[in-house]
Every structure is written in C-alpha cells, then in structure tokens.
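dumping this here so i dont lose it
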C-alpha cells in the first residue's frame, strides 16, 4: 500500500462508511442496468421479463471464480482482454455478476460491505496472534 492509500480506519471514519456504501451501490446500479439493457432479464423470444433462478445466478458467480482459478493455475492471459491476466478479468466478471444479482434483488451490497469491513477489522479471529494459535484460521 502506498503512503497515499487510506487505511481502514480512515476509510470508515465518520461519513466515509456511507460514501463507500453509496459508491458501491452506484456501481451495482450500473452493472444491473447494463445486464438489463443487454436483455439478460427478459425472454429472448418474447421480451417478457424473466424471473431468474437465484441458485442458477449464484452458480454463475461461482463459475467466474472457477475460471479465475484456472487462469491462476495455468498462468493464462485473458482471451478477450489479452493485456490482462485471466485471473483479474474473471474476478471482474464475478463482481459484475454479484452486482447484477444484488441490483436485481434489491440488496444493499455497499452497506453490507462497509459494515462487514468494520466487523472484520474488530474480529479477534482475524488478528495475527489468534491466527497463529492452535486451531486458528490459517487461510
């Protein structure tokens, strides 16, 4: 991290937590809006709105993570963005799918992310000393 990069305390101090949530949720709106405009939330034949299966959508998120793993495993560059590692492009695809899912289902991912960062920063089991103990989280 560069010296210009704010730490967690700075990011989440005061109104910053609300700003993080707002910024993330704005990207959620963009991602979901783009997938809707591309027709993924409508029947291709009739144009009628679809009730997409949550399980299927969550598995599609998982598939992007699996593709990222394959990129790591084989140290591949992406085939569509050849100047980028497959790992980072597939992780971006996973984020797009997560944000699309959140937008479709009215989830406050930005707020949950900001709150979870604060929660994790204060978790005993996330501290190095606790992780080093027998039975501590190793990864």
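and the seq i came up w/
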């Amino acid at each position: 991290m560069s010296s210009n990069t704010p730490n967690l305390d700075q990011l989440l101090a005061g109104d910053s937590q609300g700003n993080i949530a707002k910024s993330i949720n704005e990207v959620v709106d963009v991602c979901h809006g783009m997938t809707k405009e591309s027709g993924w939330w409508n029947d291709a034949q009739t144009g009628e709105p679809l009730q997409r299966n949550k399980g299927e959508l969550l598995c599609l998120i998982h598939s992007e993570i699996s593709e990222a793993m394959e990129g790591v495993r084989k140290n591949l560059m992406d085939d569509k963005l050849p100047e980028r590692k497959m790992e980072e492009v597939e992780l971006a695809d996973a984020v797009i799918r997560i944000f699309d899912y959140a937008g479709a289902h009215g989830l406050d991912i930005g707020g949950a992310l900001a709150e979870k960062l604060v929660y994790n920063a204060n978790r005993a089991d996330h501290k190095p000393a606790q992780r080093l103990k027998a039975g501590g989280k190793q990864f």
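The mean pLDDT is 88.
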